[in-house]
Amino acid sequence: MLNNQVSKAVRLAIAFGAASTAAFSASSFAAEEEGVEKVERIEVTGSRIKRTDIEGANPVVVIDRASLDNSGQLSVADVLNRSTFNSFGSIQPSSGSTAQSQATVNLRGLGSSRTLVLINGKKMPGSPVMGGGAADLNTIPFAAVERIEVMGDGASAVYGSDAIAGVVNIILRKDFEGVQVQGRMGTPSRDGGGDESSFSIITGLKSENSNLVFSYEHDERDIIFARDRWFSRATDDGSGTFAGTTGQSWYGRNILDMQTFEFNPMITGQDCSQYGDSFAYHNDAPDFPADDGCHYDYTAVAADAASTKRDSVFVNFDYDINDDLIFNFRSLHSRNESFGRFAPAAGWFTFPIALAEDTEKGLMAVNEGDRGYYRFNNVGTSRDTWQVSNMADWSASLNGMGEVLDWHVDAHYNRYEMNEWGQGYVHRPSVENAIIDGWDPRDPDQSAYATQLANIAANSNRRSGSTLREVTAGVSFNELATLPAGELGLYVGASYRETDYFDQAEAQNEAKNIIGTAGGSAAGDRTESAVFAEMLIPVVDTLELNLAARYDDYSDVGSSFVPKVSLKYQPFDELVLRAAWGEGFRAPTLEDLYKAPQESASSAKDVVVCTSAGTSRSDCRTQQHTTYFIGTDSLKPEESESVSFGMVYNITDNIDMSVDYYDIEITNQVSSLSTQDVFDLELAGLLGDPEDPNDNAAGYDQVSVDRGGNPTGRSLLVTAPMANIPGFSTDGLDFKLNAVFDLGGAGLLRSKFAWSEVLSYEEPDIIGYPNVDKIGRAGLPERRISWGLTWDIEAHMLNVNWNHIASTAEETEDANDEGTKFKAVGELSSYNIIDINYTYATPWNLDLTLGVNNLADKDPVLNSELDYDDTLYSQVGRLYYAGFKFKF
After folding, report:
1. Domain, as residue range, for 179
2. Closest listed residue to residue 97, CA positions, set 483, 546, 328, 422
3. CA 265 to the chain's CA centroid
4. What is the DSSP letter of 17?
């Protein structure tokens, strides 16, 4: 049976260009060709025990090198972002945050921090730029990837923390001979940025007992400004109301009277255009309908997508010390430069003195202690941010092989550091001093204040970094005992890991004195020790039981023990039935624990103010509120329980299908309370007194809202900490169908079809209330489909890829007066993208490729306010590209 399985897997893999489930080594099948009974054992993602079977109890999908090349994408992140198991999208490079150069993968929509990313089976540390919670895929050179294995099931019992949603194992090239040079250039059909280019060279050398692979890669992507896409530009319906606009901010030229809490422009007569073309008057101000203001069009300056420039060097060296001992060394160095542009600094300041009304210029009077909500375009026309990230990842291992057991000892070191330089920011204390010294922020003519404005200008610089040092050792007993149905397998191992992390802002940022940036720092370190074991038990000829368990001990958040049980039943060669149950955990990141207050203007509905004014939640305007996000050092690890079962059926030698069901529940969820969460807790009367440790009604530390002594007044400052909240759950189905058709003289036609359906996604509408099913709401599509067709005929190859994201509701609104239930309203259309490329293999080892991504030039899916989810949809539009690959 085993040899039949392996032989069929080879035929399918050759036909499809990618295995439908598990990865394999060609040498595994040499034994069958030679008529030898024994076949080589292989290791599959999700298990440390080597085995002879291709299909295991874990659902593993492989994206091989040919599929990567045929995808038409530029990076690993681009490929994974379009995959069906990236249910709700993932972070892509964007201008507007510290993570402007980063990219992640988000299996099952559980969050990127719950997807474990491995490089050659070793954990890829979380990026310090994102708080250490998720790995940055943009550090991985695309050309150096041999294949990507994706396991869509929990694997904490094998790999430890973070593997709640599943595992992405990126296998880099190890077996390459010759030299390959590859390049590509692409440009969108729309004007205004988004051009891309890449170049790579790979070389490999082999001797009798060694193998060396080297690669270098460089790629670039241009910035895209908001003004360069029609849907990102500001709009105004002419009604004169703030509600009739998009792309406008109430941080313009406005005054908040701290006695009456009225919000008004700094200039009378509604003539905001005196401040510049980007300013406009609107009434019906946010949350306070009687108010009005001078609002600012931030889309005229800000960028949507950041520019990136990446360089990477990869080296892999294998040396056979003897027939039973192999040494491996791997080195990966990556450098990523990015540039992002924000609108001029926006923020509030306190007037230290009263300013009299100026009837000649039409300037409003200001009381001492009033607040200015201000756009500092007179200090800098934009805020520009440059980032440089450097990552070094080294590993060395000894692998021994024997008759009874195999063993390995691995050492792993990773260093990631990011430096950020920002200009165009404002020093808040200097603003107040400048007003005392004669600067009038109300004045439309700022030319007379050049000295004062120069004195309030500031930079915003920060450094983030992390270091990982890890040692792992393990022993695998491949034939520990002989049972009637086969050999009993056992793996036992242990690891020790040290992690250091820091995110350091400048001192003035730390003191929250810089307007236009988050400020705040974090730092910490931890050690982790783990022991783990796995056993493979052949119960009968057709039934296999796999047991795994892991114990982790952390220096800061305690310990965790997680088991997993999986079964594989194979009643005949063509059919595999599988099932698994397991527990998982995710430790809080060091940033979660130790983050200092970080300021943000966060969007939320102030339901306290709206309720007091008799406004329903659905009619309550979403606006920005100054919020401090902070860490909590008392966090505990979150826990999970997962169940999966499915089948793999080889219908014929050329057709293969699989169906898998998953159900994942997360409890004690580690989460950053949002500004909206805090308002909801306040409305429910669940906020305790942050100054009284015995008054913690909501069960969360440090939660507060400062309303200046007025219980229903405008929020002045919200404090939102990290917290353990009850959790959420999801379940769904994955269906895959692969086929190859021999067209005779017309070549080969290969088809790869994948459908992922999220059946439910349950979490509370309002924190503290019961879970409700949110699937189908905006940002939570229930379905993703991909279908790839490849037609090969002699020297010609045509690839057509279709990607579908289901339609969703536009928004939610109250379903009852209490606002404890919501209903979906409106509809956002489905998203259908077709990519096509053609490759001609010349007689001179040169492949030439022409392609178009987003053939129909589809816009991202837009809501009624012309906003879109940039984790799911792309703003690039149609992209033409041409490439070459030359091997010698």
Report:
1. 2-223+306-342+387-423+462-593+635-674+724-887
2. 422
3. 39
4. S
What sign has the CA pseudo-torsion 144, 150, 156, 159? negative
Tokens 């059909």 sit at which residue?
189
pLDDT in tens, 446-468: 999 999 999 999 999 999 999 99
CATH of residue 520's domain is: 2.40.170.20
Distances in Å between the alpha carbon of 363 and those of 217, 257, 260, 441?
Answer: 57, 15, 19, 10
CB neighbours of residue 451 within 10 Å: 11
- Cα-based angle 868, 871, 872 (whole degrees, multiple of 5): 70
- pTM of whole model > 0.85? yes
**Tokens standing for 83?**
């995959």
Residue 134 lies in a domain: yes
H or E segment to which residue 536 belongs: strand 522-540
Which string of DSSP letters, residue by residue, matches 667-712? EEEEEEPPHHHHHHHHHTT----TT-TT--TTS-SS-EEE-TT-TT
Report the SS3 class of residue 344.
coil
**What confidence tier does 485 reach under pLDDT thresholds 50, 70, 90?**
confident
Q: Yes or no: say if 644 and 59 are a contact pair by the CB < 8 Å rule.
A: yes
Which are the contacts of 288, defined by CB distance < 8 A and separation ≥ 6? 261, 262, 263, 609, 714
Q: Read off the DSSP letter of residue 406.
A: E
Give the number of other CB atoms < 10 A from CB of residue 36: 10
Question: What are the structure tokens assigned to 729, written together?
Answer: 């759950």
Is 604 part of a structural domain of the chain?
no
Handedness of CA 836, 841, 842, 847 (dihedral sign): positive
pLDDT at site 695:
53
The residue ranges of DSSP E strands in 765-878, in sequence order, are 771-773, 783-793, 796-805, 811-814, 822-825, 831-841, 846-853
Q: What is the DSSP string of 484-495?
A: TTEEEEEEEEEE
Q: Given the structure tokens 């021999």, which residue do they identify?
A: 742
Q: How far apart are CA 683 and CA 880, in angstroms?
A: 52
Q: Measure the CA–CA gap between 23 and 11, rounded to whole angstroms.
A: 14
- In this prediction, residue 9 has a pLDDT band, given cuts at 50, 70 and 90, of very low
Query: Domain total for the chain?
Result: 1
Q: What is the DSSP secondary structure assignment for residue 241, as one 8-state letter?
A: B
Cα–Cα dist 459/112, whole Å: 31
The H or E element spanning position 634 is: none
Tell me the pLDDT band of 55, cut-offs 50, 70 and 90: low
CA atoms lying within 13 Å on the CB side of residue 734: 28
Are 835 and 844 a contacting pair, CB within 8 Å? no
The strand pairing partners of 191, in sequence order, are none
What are 541's two structure tokens?
A: 């000829």
CA-closest candidate to residue 360, choices 444, 296, 436: 444
Nearest C-alpha neighbor of 320 from the set 209, 166, 447: 209
What is the CA 492 to chain-centroid distance, rounded? Answer: 32
Structure tokens at 354: 């009263």
Enumerate the β-bridge partners of residue 469. 413, 498
In a domain, 709, yes or no: no
Q: In 583-696, where does DSSP find H-type helix? A: 590-594, 607-612, 675-683
The gap between the terminal CA atoms of the chain, to the nearest Å, is 41
Residues with Cβ within 8 Å of residue 207, at least 6 apart in sequence: none
The predicted structure's pLDDT at residue 589:
95
Cα 478 to Cα 9, 157, 409, 488, distances in angstroms: 22, 19, 17, 7
CA–CA separation, 5 and 9 (whole Å): 6
pLDDT tens column, 335-392:
999 999 999 999 889 999 999 999 999 999 999 999 999 999 999 999 999 999 999 9
Q: From the CA atom positions of the chain, what is the Rg in Å?
A: 29
Residue 48 forms part of a structural domain: yes
77 SS3 class: helix
DSSP 8-state code for residue 280: E
3-state secondary structure of 108: helix
430 by DSSP, 3-state: which? helix
